[in-house]
Design a protein that fits this description.
This protein is mainly α. The protein has 14 helices and two strands; from the N terminus they run H-H-H-H-H-H-H-H-H-H-H-H-E-E-H-H.
Length: 355
């Protein structure tokens, strides 16, 4: 009798799984084909519920805990699949077509990729993005580490200073860009007019505008990286520091020979976060300069002289309404970021071993 009940549960669970998968696949096919059927959403939800119920009621003791774990992880995995994996795959496929944001008529192969490399403004955006990343990896980590050293000292009021340095990171990039645009165009110009009789805004010249973006980014992001460095510095054992002081080590020797080697994993994390964040810089770039002013590159004026990769992709796809070209740039951007990030982590891990 028990075997019959178990077999009945097994058959019911299998039927739920099969029907659930069929409903799910059919709903996704209708969605990708552009069907306007009203029952797509209901079919998708029913399919997901049947799959989860089939997994939960499947009568097996050996793998039941694993199945329950999968069920609890399913919402997160499903969200990741729908918001990251599927858009990534579709984005790569769209880059080989003449997709206009709604439909595609022809497959054009590598034509979009050939075209983007013939655009000097795109090549320029790659170059200044790499320059921006290099400057910010150095400056953000340097400023953040110095602030972390200050905030882990025994001075009074360190809690206030930690909050004050981190507060900048809570301001949205768009708002921050407009605030600093006012500062550079009105406050700084009055100061320079008083000191050197020149009221030219930093945002009117490419070189100074580029460094203005760097200043704002360092001002915003250093506080966040500072907190990670504070956490790393607090993990350094106090007895090791005391032993070094007893042995006559100077503060600089303690810093370079003890603290920095012991927080090498923290440095790896901070450099990785700084690198990826600087590469993806968009909101401050958009609000502060919107890509202007122009720059001279290979004997040609680039009207969007401070437009970095993310902003260049946005302008191509949304402003110029050229979605396949913008998608091709986005795919190349993803490849560049993935390669640089992997190289950075490997190099940092080797440095950790050496330290």
């Amino acid at each position: 009798m028990g075997n019959e009940v178990s077999m009945g549960k097994k058959i019911t669970a299998i039927l739920m799984l099969v029907v659930g998968v069929l409903f799910f696949v059919r709903a996704m096919m209708l969605d990708f084909s552009g069907s306007k059927a009203d029952f797509r959403g209901a079919m998708l939800i029913i399919g997901v519920v049947l799959i989860i119920a089939g997994l939960y009621f499947f009568p097996t003791l050996r793998y039941h805990r694993t199945i329950i774990n999968i069920i609890f992880l399913f919402p997160l995995l499903f969200a990741f699949l729908v918001t990251v994996i599927i858009p990534l795959v579709l984005g790569v496929s769209y880059s080989f077509t003449d997709w206009d944001g709604i439909r595609m008529n022809n497959i054009v192969g590598l034509a979009n990729y050939t075209k983007i490399f013939s655009q000097k403004d795109f090549i320029w955006s790659i170059l200044i993005t790499f320059m921006f990343v290099v400057f910010n990896m150095i400056l953000v980590n340097l400023v953040a580490f110095l602030l972390a050293l200050l905030c882990t000292s025994k001075l009074k009021g360190m809690g206030f200073f930690r909050a004050a340095y981190f507060l900048h990171n809570l301001i949205g990039g768009i708002v921050l860009g407009y605030i600093w645009q006012f500062v550079f165009s009105n406050v700084v110009t009055k100061i320079t007019m008083t000191l050197i009789k020149d009221n030219t805004s930093m945002l009117e010249n490419f070189r100074t505008a580029f460094f203005a973006i760097i200043i704002v980014y360092v001002w915003q992001y250093a506080g966040y990286i500072m907190l990670i460095y504070i956490t790393g510095l607090n993990t350094v054992p106090g007895d090791v520091i005391e032993a070094a002081a007893i042995d006559g080590a100077s503060p600089m020797q303690t810093l370079f020979d003890i603290k920095i080697p012991m927080i090498a994993p923290t440095i790896t994390i901070c450099t990785f976060l700084t690198l990826t964040s600087a590469f993806k810089q968009f909101d401050v770039n958009l609000a502060l300069t919107n890509g202007t002013p122009s720059a001279d590159f290979m004997g040609e004026y680039i009207t969007q002289g401070t437009s970095m990769l993310a902003l260049n992709i946005f302008q191509t796809a949304v402003v110029k309404d050229n979605y396949p070209l913008g998608q091709s740039k986005a795919v190349l951007f993803f490849i560049i970021l993935a390669i640089v990030s992997i190289l950075q982590v490997r190099i940092s891990n080797k440095k950790e071993v050496e330290l």
